[in-house]
Amino acid sequence: MGLDTTVAGKSRPAGQRSDLSSIKRWWRTLGGDGFAVLPPPTRSRYTQSDGHEDAAELFATRSLPTGTSFAYWHWQSHSAFDRAGGLKGELYVHWGGDHATVAAGLGDGPADYRVIDGGPQGAFRIDKVTERDDDGLPDPEDTAGVRQLLDRLRSPLVNRPGRPRHHDAPLTAAEERWLHDRLRDPVELSWAAGFVTALESRRALSPEETSRLLPAWRKEYAGRLTAWPAWAALLDALLRHDHEEVWDTAASLGPQASDALGAAPSPRALDILRGWSLTGHPHAIHAWLDVHRAVHGTDPVRTAGALAAELTAHHAPETSLSSLFGALSATITADWRAARPTADRSTAQAFAALTAVRLATDDDLPRPLRRAAARRADDQVAHVREQAARHPGGTEADVLAAADRYDAARDDLLAGTGPDLTGYEGGLGDLYHRYRTPAPADVQWLRDRVADPSTGVQGIAFCLELLLAHGEAGEAELDALLPRWKKELTKQYRTTYTEWRHPLVTLTCLALDLDHPAAAALTAWWAKPKPLWKTPVRLLTHLGAPDEAKAAELWDFVASGADDNGQLMTWVLLRARLDGTHPLLVAERLIGQRGIRAYVLHRVLIGVADPSQPLWHYAVDPRSHSWLRRAQEVADDPRLTDAARAIGLRTAREHYVFRYPDQVRPALTDGQLAAAHAWAEARADRIAVD
Prior knowledge:
The chain is mainly α and 690 residues long.
């Protein structure tokens, strides 16, 4: 009998269904009684928000009640299947509506699979049913069973903040024998990675296994050592066994080996980490602090002061001091938790907040490090004050005195500073609301960053959008960026998760508004068919120097029903500029209009509440301070119709401040949470009607 495909490394007989086919066949049988399932995803359903938008379209198409519960998986979840449709990991199924209804609708799953319920705030998961022997171990040839075992053994004990090293759950004798047997000759490295990690996370990889795996790893993964999933575990074993080739191996890996060296302190490790840290690598800086402290026996504050002086003297990148402060705060908090093993996570977070407030005014630290502490403390000082009477870090008087010292020093320390533009994009979105009314010092900082040749695409996008939105961008910004646009700004930069647009869109709008000579070249580039990434966002450049022809082209796109990437928001803002009116009044006229998708319009209505800083996120962000504030403003705007205000009220009520307040970022103070609930209670009669 012939073979038609392969599943997880094993041949599947012709005619046998793939996992994907089996799950799809079962999926098509689901639905009914207030429950619906979305069709399997395409790439356009990439996130959970995309899934909820698809559900809204499905309800409209099938005339289903908007309160229908539903389930789906998106394209990121779909990566659980290999190219042949084999299930190589758990398939995450997301949902909306009533959890019990969804759980009942999914049931136990298709034959030979099981549905795992992640609870009211989690996803459901689908996985294969596998067999185990009397020791709870799978047949080594059962790839799904092996994967499930390794998943069970993988969860690490985090004994350094944020950096897992070794496991606290010992292996049974049968498990350890089974894992060692998998590493006997001959061994296929890609297949062996999970076994190596499971053993070494318990410090159980033997010297013989380590010596045998090292040359195989170097040969098979030459030039890309970190592509092997178990490289960190093998490096840990090399250090633990003091292997003669460990230092050459660490040098080949570069700064990515920092965590391993930090967990095995020595003068040699200290010297290597110092070199990497002076280049500004954040992981190296964390490990450098740990190893320096261990080797020299100094307290963390004194150690951090010495390292900060070295970083400053060697002109390390500005972000190095933020990384060093993060390492210092984590170390102090870890020491505090070690002395209080019963302290929970929230208590440790409260102590870390007070630590940032105190370090900002600690004269034993150099000023650059105190400035880094002040930036971190700025989000924390209000929480510290609220918790002063019950704070785990000291008496009420001591805590309030530390907050007072911070408040007195804050403006001087933070003058001319801003967020890390190279970090996690969501972190920048979390503080976007701070720039709704930028101070002169903020504007200057944004301008300086745009003018700085070292600022990357994400930083340019963030800063230029804010400057243009507030009318502060001009020829200086064009002069700074035009020499870079063809080489750097024509690259794809996915902005659908952000409050800002692609930087080349923003730059083009600026050039058009200023009638700059470069506008013609920029517009001509957008008109070319390639690169393909620009096609969905080209029309967003029409907001620059708007006219009726641009408005008509945008409207034709909006009315076509094509996927919206900001075109409706662009049309609303453009129309408002042409008509000399507020964009809210433009948006509300579209409510109920045929061909306008309600969920897109509702997001636009909230997003343009402040035309001097519109929010370009592809959906309402329920964790965001910005989106909550604008939704409240729409709900209370006396210029708007009852229908528009109802959209604002409903959007505000769906915000996480009322549902999952601990997920709002930055974290809410008790006062902010109380104010939000008071706002909702004052409108309880309107909420009931809506």
